[in-house]
């Protein structure tokens, strides 16, 4: 059953919803924000699933966190649905560990052990499929687990009109679902890193793009690339001597494999949560990516589709809320927890605020599985060129054929 609202008005017809999304997809600037829920179909985990796997697999560390009051009894109770904010928990652990190290407290070894195990749970949740990492040849074009990601990228790029910018994909995920899906269909991804064998972060690359040099005028329909901003980092990013590099998946896989199997205590990826997320985001890489996100939201005639995001990151929530000051911004949020506009108790506070605004520039789609990532990709219009012109031509041909057959006026 469709549960959808544009502002305070219900959308009860599937066709009306898709027509609305088709209109938004034609705006000057188009982007999507993907959270952990968008990767579940490819083997990823939601934050809740990540936490439960940590409690089950690293019960000793979970018990120690409870003993030291980092989490509550409800958080580690297998029969309870309570889930702590994993990033805030990692922040608390990092801050406490720094203080224990300063005073040489005997809690430091247990704290480091718990923190490493929490990071292992994070990395495992972002692996998707282990066999994908060991393939230097990449992912097959018909990989079913990435079908929805491929559909999303194809529909976003095919919707671009002549002269319009390529679409943006913003994600809080650490996995490689977007990159692998794009590579499987030979689509270029601009993610801030440049180079062939040594890919170094250079934010100026976001100001570049790809085009067909033979296309002129209306023939420049569509785009040849997407911009990808991974707002929390990636499993394949590393810092070396003050520079930030992207490592090929098969090249970094041995280090990841050793870490998740507890053969090493640390893993050098930028993905792992650290103390004071807000301080971290003013750093070179993550600060630049958040700036690009804020800049995108401020552009005129912009639409942003949000799916799989649980509104648990306050720095992103504040950007989304303040972005509504842009009078031409349109938000579309797919949130499975929404059952009705009259009952928003199951939503995160930031999402409840968006719903309470009842702004016609905010469209929400709920209804459980009806708001999953695969449904978003189905709701977006299929690629088509000059629909109105083709429909008019079709009608004329039909009328001509009718006259020739003697059945017309």
Give the topology:
Blueprint: E1 3-6, E2 9-10, H1 14-25, E3 29-34, H2 47-57, H3 59-67, H4 73-76, H5 86-103, H6 108-126, H7 130-133, H8 147-158, E4 168-171, H9 177-184, E5 188-190, E6 193-194, E7 199-201, E8 225-230, E9 237-240, E10 243-246, H10 249-260, H11 277-280, H12 284-297, E11 302-307, H13 314-323, E12 329-334, H14 349-357, E13 362-366, H15 373-379, H16 387-404
Parallel strand pairs: 3-4, 3-11, 4-8, 5-8, 11-12, 12-13
Antiparallel strand pairs: 1-2, 1-13, 6-7, 7-10, 9-10
Rg (CA only) = 23 Å
| Strand segment tally | 13
Strand adjacency order, main sheet: 2-1-13-12-11-3-4-8-5
The helix tally amounts to 16
Q: Tell me, what's the shape? A: globular
Topology-level CATH name of the largest domain:
Rossmann fold
Task: Please explain how this structure is put together.
By secondary structure, the chain is an alpha/beta fold. The protein folds into two domains: 300 residues, Rossmann fold, CATH 3.40.50.1220; 80 residues, no CATH class. Helix content is 42%, strand content 13%. The chain has 16 helices and 13 strands. The strands form two sheets. The chain has a nine-stranded mixed β-sheet, with helices on both faces. It has a four-stranded antiparallel β-sheet with strand order 6-7-10-9, with no helix packed on it. Helix 13 links the parallel strand 11 and strand 12. The protein is globular, with a radius of gyration of 23 Å.
